[in-house]
Amino acid sequence: MDGYDVVILGSGQAARPLALAFAAAGRRVAFVEREHLGGTCINTGCTPTKTMVASARVAYLARRAGDFGVRAHAVSVDMTRVRERTRRIVRQFVDSSRAALVAQPAIDLLLGAGRFVGPRQLEVRLNHGGVRQIAGEVIVIDTGARTQVPRLEGLEQVPWLDHAGMLELAVVPEHLLVLGGGYVGLEFAQMFRRFGSRVTIVQRAAQLLPREDADVGAAIGAVLATDGIEIWLSSQARRVANQGQAIALVCDTPGGERSLVGSHLLVATGRTPNTEALDLQAAGIEVDAGGHVKVDERLATSAPGVFAVGDVKGGPAFTHIAYDDHRILRTNLLEGGQATTRGRMVPYVVFTDPELARIGLSGADARREGRDIRVARIGMDQVARALEMDEARGFLEVVIDARSQQILGATILGVGAGELMAVIEVAMMGGLTAPALRDATFAHPTLAECLNTVMAAR
User: Where does the FAD/NAD(P)-binding domain start and stop, copy by copy (predicted)?
Assistant: First the structure.
């Protein structure tokens, strides 16, 4: 076998910076990728979807031009141009990743499918033909996850789409059926509503974004309903079938069995890890009931010298968490540190419009922990900058320890929510109290001024 200091299997968002760090430290690295350099985020996730969200927002604002006193002609959407813009930006990101890797002589880029054949030993079937047998002193698994296909009668007979398929549409669907009310479903639902589709969301749970507090799910539902999206809650899809050129979906709802007929079906009911083809048992690597690689707080698997990062290990499935995984391994394996996942903050943003951003504890989280808290909340209609922008939908809620006045978390539904959340996160990292932000001097007129207002709210 060809021996390497490090073998990185998969190219999620931890993989490239980790490979470059090892190469810079003089280690010989094998970088194995089956199909898409950059993983889900660059190719079918964050980069293309947020690019298309931006196009959809332009269409939305163009239709609202009259609200701002601007006359505009009828708005139409050219999905071919939208798709090409998206592809161009994806290519730019992928090419940048490839260039960084191939520029390092210590990195061997192997394009093919890898699987374990023994402890820290792999076989790589190269895409252009041939097989490589390789071994590494350190192995890092970063193979990510893919769309989880639900058990739904008739699904295999209809032309359903996942998030990747939606990115390739050259036409605006007449009626898009969205199966699932998580962040993927909501982002695509609003995006295509703004492109001009009729959209219906079918959600099994009693609220959208079921991991959020009930009031947050209701608020985001109200935003989407105002945008003209039909939402079926507590509705379980039972069967689906072709109906001529359309797709018929039958659901159990609180009102009994109901049918929907749409032109396109998006399945957004969850993600499953890419582990079944890796032959992990050959290397003594344990997985959980869902197929995720089991790791400890230092990202080590059950096999010595083997680590897992990103979505393949379960936990929060966010690009920034995968990137932080890379920092943990870099610190421990190259710098002699003792970094762990224990206690790390997990910020995230749902890129609807307005955005939904979260950091730390929600009010319900804090109450379940028995904490004595104060919940400070204001509507975005109390934020001067939001009113000036005619973007006053949503709210800002901060959870504060009643005794120490430490900020425990925040939930923001509003324009610029992700950026406001980042300010609160930095304050939490620095140990600033709610009164410190209440009394801070922020420039006027900015969205950040709302931190003065909310920290003083009762």
Answer: 4-324
Counting every residue, how long is the chain? 458
Any catalytic annotation for residue 444?
yes
Cα–Cα distance for residue pair 169/302, rounded to 1 Å? 42
In Å, how far are 40, 90, 172, 191 from 49, measured between CA atoms? Answer: 11, 10, 15, 9
pLDDT tens digits, residue range 372-412? Answer: 999 999 999 999 999 999 999 999 999 999 999 999 999 99
- In CATH terms, the superfamily for domain 2-147+272-334 is FAD/NAD(P)-binding domain (3.50.50.60)
Q: What is the CATH number of domain 354-456?
A: 3.30.390.30
The residue to which tokens 């079921």 are assigned: 210
- Which residue among 73, 264, 326, 444 is the active-site one? 444
Q: Tell me whether the CATH fold assigned to 155-269 matches the one assigned to 354-456.
A: no
Percent of the chain with pLDDT over 90: 98
pLDDT < 70 regions, the chain: none
> Which own/partner contact pairs does 105-108 have at CB distance under 8 Å and 24+ positions apart?
106/22, 106/23, 106/26, 106/27, 106/28, 106/29, 107/19, 107/20, 107/23, 107/29, 107/30, 107/31, 108/4, 108/28, 108/29, 108/30, 108/31
Residue partners of 82: CB distance under 8 A and separation at least 6:
52, 55, 195
Q: What is the pTM of this model?
A: 0.95
**Please, what sign has the CA dihedral across residues 246, 252, 255, 256?**
positive
- Domain at 155-269, CATH homologous superfamily: FAD/NAD(P)-binding domain (3.50.50.60)
